[in-house]
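In this section we walk through a basic example: taking a raw amino acid sequence and producing a predicted 3D structure, encoded as discrete structure tokens. The instruction is simple. Fold the sequence below.
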Amino acid sequence: MAKTGTLKIILINSKDQPVARGTVIVNGDGRSYNALTDRAGIVSFILPAPPKALSQSPTVSQKPYTQYNVRIAASGYVPVTVVGEQLFDGIITVRRVVMQTSEEYPDLNEKRIVTPEHERYIGSMRRTSADIGEAAAEASALPVKRRVVVPETITVHLGAPNAIAENVTVPFIDYIKSVASSEIYPTWPEAALRANIIAQVSLALNRIYTEWYPSQGYDFDITSSSAYDQYYVHERSIFDNISELVDELFTNYLARANAIEPVFTQYCDGATVSCEGMSQWGTVTLANRGFDPLDILRYYFGQDTYIAEAEVTQGPTESFAGDLYPGSENVDVATLQRRLIRIAINYPQIPFIVRVDGKYGPQTEEAVKAFQRVFGLDPTGVTDRETWYRVQYVYTAVKKLAELGSEGERVESDAYGRYLQLGDRGTDVLRMQYYLRVIADAIGDDSIPRAKTTGVFDDETRAAVAKFQEYFGLSTTGAINEDTWNAIVDTYYRYESSVWQDIEYPGTPLRIGSEGRYVTYIQNALNTVGARIPGMTELAPDGYFGPVTQAAVKMYQSYSGLEPDGIVGPQTWNKLSSEYRALMFGDSATGSVG
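The resulting token sequence is shown next.
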């Protein structure tokens, strides 16, 4: 029996009224077909299509669909030509065309719509998680919501982020229908279709939730490029079965236990391109093995994921609600405080805020000022629009919310979180590692080893914890229970306020091979002062004076009119320390050599 698909043409005008008796001519497969639209503006053609089996395996090279060109004409309207409509075996392809009157567009002789080859046929250029991380490192500003919402519309940039291309604003549900019709074959098993659609919704909502592009200064929400986001074709035809599934699923997204944000459901075709996330062809295999949609998603994204439902909103989705300043007291201040606390783990120049209380007090103001200095903003202490979005972007970058390996968006505080031991990972480990480093620097006699802040509870961290416990008379287990947790937090805040203000020149120059708290101090000072020096590389404050630190010292010395020998002697120490204290503490007198 010959295989066929259905091409359904719907004609309406700009007032959403049907266009009846429009002439529709379809050419393809070596034949021509023509008919008139009915009173509802609809006409359907049953046309030859390749067998369904061609779209069930990535190893089949033959095109699994037939392409047709359509010519549409109606009295009083501009003619329309559609190129490349795709027909699959047993599938209804729906083409909705808005006819424009000759009076509305007197200079328009023809409207032309081109449907490119299907993404699965031509292959994928899906970006890998490593690339996404590089993109995060290159940018510098981004916000995070307190709830997940489906916007009424989404603005799509029809190209790569920096490409000169048109922006189109379309209903969110229509965006997902286009992406799904462009990226997956409508002949796939329903479980595979559902899993892919939920992943596509989740990726788009992650971009909306994190305001990934607007926070970087772009005037769109997402791109049409599969190298950055997912493949969108403007004004393409939609497959009827996919349209019905999207109508049901467009508010569903993948979430992770104990996190808020939609999972960045990175995926690729799994045949021509592999990635850390979901294989689209792999979903077909799993569906044929009897996996349901959630099982398929969990296979790729982890057993701690579940399908959540977002709230549909017609209002604005922008997170910035107005300037925050000393005296402000609201939920946005609490959000700001949480993000600054997390950022401070990666950027020790920023002081920790002791309590998330929603009150914009002196600690919050100082943390904002430090953040502004580190990231090249005017250190006013006021969180204006630019500062808000810079805080939120850096927060999203350090937590990897816009990446597959996200830490998860959740409330953080210094209250005891969980028992930590060898092999544990996450933000709780990061916090404890950072606190232990500050304590080790404050004590300054190598009693406590200085473990790296990696977020992984490794052997170095266990040794540091054990030495801390020994130093402060606790049971020496090398693990962090509630008593050790509270002791670390209390000790950190006892030392944190004075650890850098009291430090003085060590008496001997710092050079290649030097280690310890004095090197950490210089590295922090170079990071803060060097923010104004063009080309200055940010240093990891690891307490080791290596070639990178030496190069930064030379750059600072050249910029400051000192001999660029790469050695921190009394003259370099005095000048750098004075400038650092003036920026950080408003004090240029302490720390110098007499």
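Looking at the output, two observations stand out. The CA atoms of residues 83 and 557 lie 64 Å apart. The radius of gyration is 30 Å. In the next section we compare this with other chains.
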